[in-house]
Amino acid sequence: MSTQDTLQARDFFAQKLAFLTGPYELNGQLRRNEPITIVDVRLPSDYQAGHIPGAINLPQGKWHTLGGLGKDRTAVLYCYSQTCKLAAAAAVELASAGIPVVEMEGGYEAWVKSELPVER
């Protein structure tokens, strides 16, 4: 049996909790009117077909504009699915500009599979 570095494990999971959220947690934040901005980084056509209620669309190529974002609200980013890396790439760019960021794991696909509200 291998020995785990429990301090390293603690740090890893603390980081995960600080920078990742899930569909149910995000839905709770919406219901509590927490100071967040939901950011859909998918293509505009996909955003128009359906998105998380209240989300703004900021696709790749527009991240540098910081359109609709502020340093006083956490940007909760999502893309297509668990394997999509667009939200993580957007998080790097936005955090570099001083915007607090969190990624919603599973993307829009997880939101829909969780049967949470969709805005069109």
Give the SSE layout:
Elements: H1 6-19, E1 20-21, H2 23-31, E2 36-40, H3 44-49, E3 56-57, E4 74-78, H4 86-96, E5 101-104, H5 107-113
Parallel strand pairs: 1-5, 2-3, 2-4, 4-5
Written description of the protein model:
The protein has a five-stranded parallel β-sheet. It is α/β, with parallel strands linked by helices. The protein has five helices and five strands, in the order H-E-H-E-H-E-E-H-E-H. Strand 4 (74-78), helix 4 (86-96) and strand 5 form a beta-alpha-beta unit. 39% of the residues lie in helices and 15% in strands.
Strand order across the biggest sheet?
A: 1-5-4-2-3
β-strand amount: 15-25%
Low-pLDDT segments: none
Shape: globular
The radius of gyration over CA amounts to 15 Å
Question: Key features?
Answer:
120 residues, alpha/beta
Give me a quick take on this structure:
With about 120 residues, the chain is α/β, with parallel strands linked by helices. It has 5 helices and 5 strands. Helix 4 links the parallel strand 4 (about 75-80) and strand 5 (about 100-105).
